[in-house]
Design brief:
The chain contains nine helices and two strands, in the order ααααααββααα. The protein has about 190 residues and is mainly alpha-helical. Among the domains are: about 50 residues, no CATH class; about 70 residues, no CATH class. Strands 1-2 form a two-stranded antiparallel ribbon. Helix 7 runs antiparallel to helix 8. The protein is extended, with a radius of gyration of 30 Å.
Amino acid sequence: MADEEKQSEAKSPEETRPPTEYVPGEAELLPESETVIDEAAKKLVEKSEELTDTPVVEAFDTAVTAVTDAIESIGGVPKGPAESETHLEHSDTVEIFGRKITAPGGIYTVVFGALAALTVLEVIIGSLQGDWKAIPLMAMAVSKAALVVLFYMHLRTDSRVFALTLAIPLSIALLSILYVLAVPVTTY
């Protein structure tokens, strides 16, 4: 009997209480709040429980599931580790106009060098006088953007759904710019 009393006295109050676990939908089972932060957290959990059963959240979950299923049906998500790392195996070799070219320092180093050379050329052209420099500067900016998107963002080897994701807003922006340029200044 004395041994049992010693064991119960040796345990701290936290050890004697059963562990509290969060059960979804049961906010009243949360431990008693001791500070203002605990009370705010408890109210936040209760409010989030109320909002998870709304039609908006269910519609969002349905939409996310549909998009995920669509991407998987297109083949945009890698099936396993071997498929997800295929672009890493051939990072030193690139196919340009049907010819495979092996870059001596790796393709990322070659692309970095091309971006650096184009930037230096842009600075040189930008410092020259004349109105002719807008077209070559725009061409170099577009080519630098294409290099970054194709190689550093892996758009040339990834699923076409990513290219479509980039092409749609880019097309809308381009059409908007062309429309603004086409509107005469006197109609503003």
